[in-house]
TrEMBL record:
It comes from Isoalcanivorax beigongshangi. It holds the Pfam family Caps_assemb_Wzi. InterPro entries: Caps_assemb_Wzi, Wzi_sf. The keyword Signal applies. This is Capsule assembly Wzi family protein. Keywords: Signal. The keyword Signal applies.
């Protein structure tokens, strides 16, 4: 799969014409996330914004419409997104180099740019025509835990058919309203290579019975996980439907399925049973066709004077009951966007509990993100595909960001985390694969984080660090209290 992703952009490079070089906004830019949410909560444009990456075809008309409204056009949020949109539009062939390093492999990740390894270097080439976009990214890393020194993460080939985008590659995703994490899909783990389809623009349905949904979006993907796991080459399937029945309300419905893999049934009947949810012991202890997660999220965001206020929640069920998800994990939070001191600010307070059943008073430790057949669990290359906190965690997070008018930004954060609250070391066979970032025993830890970002030499420099009041103990290693990181992206004009 990865070889095909690399070759296709090279074979089709002669078809490049004029369009945005990158057709979407990626989930690695905190300022972009703040800007999109600020404009959406302000009512400056009306589109679902909790399913990343976000298509420029969806955002760009909203930016153009907002340009006619002074309270939108005069915001730093509008100017930043318009700049990024115009950069993509004016550079149909783009090349960039990214260099990153960290004092240790970062244990915790959120919605922001950060290196994944102690040392990494990437080269990226992107091109587009009216209906075709492609990107090729090659990354070298030094002595990574998963053994993949050479990577093509971030590579893709995508084309449009009407209002639909079909693609193949390995791209980061983030589903849900959380700022610190997601309970179903985030960029905590590396992206799995696969194929996908999504709506290009979230225009409302013209069918009267569905018109109440307002603008809506749908995306679905099918990827393949690594060979070095308990069930090698397990397939990962995901679907998400998001819509805005009210200008200041967004709803998302998500589902993911681990299915197939070496030694497992992979025929149509097995796939169909996984899709209809017949995988909770109906076919015996070893007959389940897959491992599923499903749930919903909602966000209310609206203007309050010159500020914007958001309230949000997300629940994800580990099991099924009566055809619906059950034994929920979840998160809830509140955020505030302001315009002070010639800049913009974002404050959020978020609470997460990843113990199965925690949000329905049926706590079931050692169940979340685990499965009796897929014993590597809901992980890819040793990292949780959803929550950076792993399962059985209870975390209170506070974050504050200030975005300067000159392009700089600074963010500080605090997390009060109770990791692996049950204190049980999860038994894993040697064949479970790549060593996991899975806390050993209960660990109550305070985490303090700092990030600074600024434009530098036609690119962006990101400096970040976090400090924990005690070492983080995992099955692989004990991680030191302090981790410092740097990431620099240089764009060739």
């Amino acid at each position: 799969m990865q070889a095909r992703v690399v070759l296709l952009p090279l074979l089709l490079a002669g078809a490049i014409g004029a369009a945005e070089a990158r057709p979407w906004l990626e989930p690695d830019d905190l300022r972009a996330r703040h800007s999109v949410q600020w404009l959406a909560d302000r009512g400056c444009f009306n589109a679902p914004v909790s399913t990343w990456p976000l298509m420029w075809a969806d955002l760009s008309p909203g930016l153009d419409a907002a340009a006619t409204l002074p309270e939108c056009r005069d915001s730093a949020a509008w100017r930043y997104l318009a700049f990024e949109r115009d950069y993509q539009r004016n550079h149909t062939i783009q090349a960039s180099v990214t260099l990153g390093g960290a004092s240790d492999e970062p244990v915790f990740r959120g919605f922001s740019a950060a290196p994944r390894e102690e040392a990494e270097a990437s080269v990226r080439l992107e091109m587009s025509s009216g209906r075709l976009a492609m990107g090729l990214t090659g990354t070298w890393t030094n002595d990574p835990r998963d053994g993949d020194s050479g990577r093509v993460d971030g590579s893709y080939l995508a084309g449009t058919a009407g209002n639909w985008v079909l693609g193949a590659g390995a791209i980061d995703r983030w589903w849900g309203p959380g700022w610190r994490s997601s309970t179903i899909l985030s960029d905590n783990a590396r992206p799995a290579p696969g194929v996908w389809i999504n709506r290009r623009a979230s225009t409302p349905s013209g069918w009267r019975p569905a018109s109440w949904l307002g603008p809506w979006n749908f995306t679905a993907f099918a990827g393949q996980l690594e060979r070095e796991r308990y069930v090698p080459r397990t397939k990962l399937i995901g679907m998400r439907f998001s819509f805005k029945p009210w200008r200041y309300m967004e709803v998302g419905l998500s589902r993911t399925v681990q299915w197939g893999g070496s030694g497992r049934p992979q025929g149509f009947s097995s796939f169909w049973e996984a899709m209809i949810g017949r995988d909770n012991g109906q076919r015996g202890p070893d007959g389940d066709p897959g491992n599923q997660l499903g749930g919903a999220d909602v966000r209310f965001g609206f203007p309050v004077g010159s500020t914007v206020l958001g309230v949000y929640g997300q629940v994800t069920g580990e099991d099924e009951a009566g055809g619906l998800p059950s034994t929920y994990m979840g998160l809830a939070g509140i955020d505030l966007g302001t315009q002070l001191w010639q800049g913009e600010q974002r404050l959020f307070v978020e609470y997460t509990d990843t113990t199965a059943g925690a949000w329905s008073h049926e706590r079931r430790p050692n169940v979340g993100y685990e499965h009796s057949i897929y014993r590597t669990g809901y992980r890819f290359n040793g990292r949780n595909i959803a929550s950076t906190w792993e399962s059985d965690a209870q975390v209170l997070s506070v974050g504050v960001s200030h975005f300067f008018s000159g392009g700089q930004e600074v963010s500080v954060g605090y997390d009060r985390a109770k990791l692996n609250r049950d204190g049980t070391q999860r038994p894993r066979p040697a064949s479970a694969g790549i060593p996991m970032l899975d806390p050993i025993g209960r660990q109550d830890v305070d985490i303090y984080s700092l990030q600074y970002r600024q434009p530098l030499l036609r690119g962006r420099l990101t400096l970040s660090a976090y400090y924990t009041d005690k070492e983080i103990r995992s099955a692989l290693d004990d991680y030191s209290r302090g981790t410092v990181m740097a990431l620099w992206e240089f764009r060739f004009d």
